[in-house]
Amino acid sequence: MRVVRRAPLTVLLVFVIWGLGAATGSLVRGPSPALAELIGAGLGPLRAGAWWGLATSALWCRGLASYVLSTLMIVVLLPVAERRLGSLRAAGLTVLVQVAGSALGLTWVWLLDRYADGRWADQLGVSVAVGPGTAVVGVTLVASACLAALWRRRLRLVLVIALLMLALYSGLIGDLLRLSAGLLGLALGALLFGRLRRHEVPVVPRPSRSERRVLVAFVVAASAVGPLLAAWAQSRVGPLSVLRFVFAAPAPDAATVKQICAGALDPRDVRECMELRARLRFSGLGPALLSTMPVVLLLIAAEGLRRGRRAAWGLAVGLNLGLAALAVVLMTNHAQQQIVLGAGVHPRAWIGIVLPLAQPLLVVVLLLVTRARFDVRAPHGTYRTLLQATAGGLVLATAAHVGLGLLLGDDFEPSPGVGDLVLDLPLRLVPPGYLVGVAPRFLPVDWASTALFEWIGPAVWLVLAVAALRTFLRSRPDCAEADLARVRALVGQGAGGSLQYMATWPGHAYWFTPDGTAAVAYRVIGGVAVTTGGPVGRPAAVPDAVAGFAAHCREQGWTPSFYSVDADVDAAARDLGWSTVQVAEETLLPLPDLTFTGRKWQDVRTALNRAAKAGIVAEWTTFPAAPVAITDQIRAISEEWVADKDLPEMGFTLGGLDELADPEVRLLVAVDAERSVHGVTSWLPVRRDGRIVAWTLDFMRRRSDDRSFRGVMEFLIASAATSLKAEGAEYLSLSGAPLARLDRGEPIAGLQRLLDTIGQRLEPVYGFRSLLAFKAKFQPEYRPLYLAYPDAAALPAIGNAVGRAYLPDLRPAQAAALARALFAR
Predict the structure, then answer these.
(1) I need a surface site. Which of 115, 136, 432, 581 has the fewest CB within 10 A?
(2) Do 709 and 678 contact (CB within 8 A), yes or no?
(3) Is the separation of the CB atoms in 5 and 16 below 8 Å?
């Protein structure tokens, strides 16, 4: 009922289209031809006087798949319009854009039917459109004027580009009507709610540098997907659908080509032989895959563009120029025109050739205009590695092509020599559409030689494509020792809270403010820059450091996220318009007034008394200075603890044995009279103005065999509190418990509820909530730790990056165990 109240129009439309479909027997194969002429939108129904089809066509679909996809479209898009416009206004605008958009689209159909010729115009003239997509897309683009700038740009770009690609490559009447309704919706939104009413709505701000990269990358990716749509959708008739013949065309048999060409003496037979040889280049799965390589590389380039990489910009420009060159080949070669357009006379064939030329050139123009946005260089040595992989792949391909070609020489016609095979290899690496007019030196005649002939090129390109993708995904900056020394100097100045010392751990890169008064420790995972706590350095520099690091990430094409930060960073991020969510609960134990008296401290006093009776004492040391007998036991205890888990030991903000090697990290070890270690804790220094004022608990391990005693952790923490209080420390931080928090009685938002659920599901595996309950024995003060993020759309990527930071060595079997823990009921 809550869903019905929030989106009644959405629910009503879903019920109506499925109900009418069931009542008229249209769910499986769509409405019958007679019913379609009565309720559909098309020139035929309009000429017959069925003008109501402009509205009623939205209430039926073309078949079961169309019903399912249309329902998904309604459920995803229409609630956006209802929330922004109100259900009644959204209903009225839905009817308006459906009728007016269909009428506008049919006007274009009428013009094409009357003044153009060809298969596309002929099919549009006799087609009838049904489906709610026209209304849903139109009203969604009307409502986009009411969205925030970021989502307004993204929603409009995604929908408009998708509508254009469908109209150009698919070209069905429904595609044209949806495009018309979408453009009408944009105009209505601007007129009713957008910038045309400046006195009500402020001027839309210009997109940021990183957002422009995202938008350009999406345009490049969409231009790449269009030809694939043309290749896969063989029934489509759009003006760019001729490109499907470039990527996948019916192919003759190699033996047939050989037989025809063997007796070709007449000029007509010679010409037919040339056409068949050209068509043969499009045959088989291998050449089809090789033909799509420019598209695959364009998609890889789009990912690099999203990250702002300069090399990706060059790759995208080069590939689009190559596609434009292919269009020129299609336009000028008669044999290729016959393959693409078929036999016969085509007076307007140049239109179908020039349009494929125009699209890649327009993309090149866009890339040239936005060139300054893509200036991120790869880490040192990235392209040297790529060149080495390329050279190695080509050497192996040459050896395989020549060696196997000689071995299968009798299976080619004519039988090739070493020189023929070497000279033929470059032709095997070129997409077939670029080889029109270039006669092959030899042709395969059986399955083994055909496999070599067709698959050597795709194999090389697949290797190079994977290598190129890894090149663009590689974004981890190099960390110099000088940077680490600067960070160590800044750590002692106060900012960063109780987690400040974690900034010195291995695996970080560092960003410094221009004046050098603060630094941010981070790691880049999957294009997301995840910080380890907040900025370190002068407390007054924290707001500028947060804003500066966010700008630095945008310049590099990364998504910034401040993880496990305190209230000061939370406030600075909110001032930037970011969102925050609690991801952990830190517990602080003030020391000046600490006494273990009262009933609440009973468990702690029991642990202290039990240790005294067992002759167990707490000794301070450091891992580098500890005796080998002690360090060996600590390693054994840690390995035993890890082996007992189904999942690997977590890292990131949770230190392990590697982090103990720092001489500034103090260890408190529980040992008995025989020097057996029962438990160990590590403590990280917390400095202010260069002076240690507190300590943070990090590493905790206890012996799990029968020789250990219960309460060893309570004993060690209580002993540390007593000892460090005597040294003058202000407090102890018992660190944060991830995915666990104190219930403060506040309203819980959707994201916070999701994190609470994840923490609950992972409790049997990692025991975060049990850890928080254990720390409650020390009557601590609670402080929330937050995740600050700039864009809700980036949350899945941020979640992936944080998960990989904690579990970098997660194996597939362990990932499956984690998934079972998360989704178990």
Answers:
(1) 115
(2) yes
(3) no
Residue for token digits 């219930």? 743
* Residue 435 DSSP class: G
Phi, psi of 580 (to 5 degrees): -135, 155
Gap between the Cα atoms of 562 and 516, Å rounded: 19
How high does pLDDT run on average in the chain? 80
Q: What are phi and psi of 369, to 5 degrees?
A: -65, -35
Tokens 């496999």 belong to 451
The DSSP code for 204 is: P
Contact 230, 244 (CB under 8 A): yes
Show the tokens assigned to 397: 């391909």
Nearest Cα neighbor of 465 from 414, 393, 543, 532 is 393
Question: CA 787, CA 579: separation in Å to the nearest integer?
Answer: 8
In the structure encoding, which two tokens stand for residue 572, read together? 């600075």
pTM equals 0.62
Those residues with Cβ within 8 angstroms of residue 50's Cβ, 6 or more apart along the chain or in another chain = 37, 38, 39
Helix (H, G, I), strand (E, B) or coil at 48: coil
| CB-based contacts of 80, cutoff 8 Å, min separation 6 | 140, 143, 147, 155
For residue 763, the 8-state DSSP code is: H
Contacts of 494 (CB under 8 A, 6+ apart): 538, 539, 687, 688, 689
Identify the DSSP state of 169. Answer: I
- The pLDDT of residue 201 is 41
Nearest to 797 by CA among 484, 513, 560: 560
Predicted confidence (pLDDT) per residue in 6-36, tens digit: 889 999 999 999 999 999 998 988 899 899 8
Helices and strands (DSSP H and E) totals, the chain: 34, 14
What is the sign of the dihedral through the CA atoms of 238, 243, 247 and 251? positive
d(CA 443, CA 667): 74
Of residues 644 and 290, the one with the higher pLDDT is 290
Q: Is 524 helix (H, G, I), strand (E, B) or coil?
A: strand
Tokens of 243: 């490109």
The top-scoring range by mean pLDDT among 97-101, 192-196, 257-261 is 97-101
DSSP string for 14-68: HHHHHHHHHHTT-TTT-S-HHHHHHHSBSHHHHHTT-TTHHHHGGG--SSHHHHH
- What is the torsional sign of CA 804, 808, 812, 815? negative
The pLDDT tens digits for 764-818 are 666 677 878 888 888 888 888 888 988 888 888 888 888 888 777 666 766 776 6
